What does this fold into?
Amino acid sequence: MDFLTQSTHVHITTWVIALILFFVALRKPSTGIHMGLRLFYVLILITGFALFVTFDSLNPMLYGLKMLGGLVAIGLMEMTLVRKKKGKKNGGVFAGALAVLLITIILGFALPGIA
Ligand code: HEM
It folds into this structure.
């Protein structure tokens, strides 16, 4: 499974597609798009964990925080869509999702990669 860990490109592809599906589902709720998004959550997790266990890092704590950020971001994205579907207020979880996504992306790019 080298292709998963030789570079971060597969991981980046999975979360970029997930973000696109998330914003499409938010504007125009659709069960199909939401199911597609859930599939991409799984792909993000697989590629993220593969990188996590492979990459040697001088800074394990930041890697831990990066993983936590990714997990929380996925949780908040899912909560945002489910609350919208149920007609509940979702402004708070949506703002949280955006904030955690931003932190995760900054942290991800700040990490040294294959160091
Ligand atoms: C929506 C969720 C996520 C976003 C937006 C995201 C974003 C990113 C970004 C921007 C990078 C940097 C890529 C690069 O430098 O080439 C990255 C790398 C990485 N991600 Fe994620 N990620 C997410 C979820 C996860 C999850 C759930 C995990 C762990 C299970 C994870 C583990 C990693 C690891 C280990 C790296 C390698 C860090 C490095 O560049 O050294 N990510 N991610």
